[in-house]
Amino acid sequence: MLDSAVNFRTQADIKEQAFNVIKSYGLTPAQVLNMFLTQIAKTNTIPLSLDYQPNTKTANAINELMSGKGERFSVDSFDEFQQKIRDLSK
Question: What residue spans define the domains of the chain?
Answer without folding.
Answer: 12-43
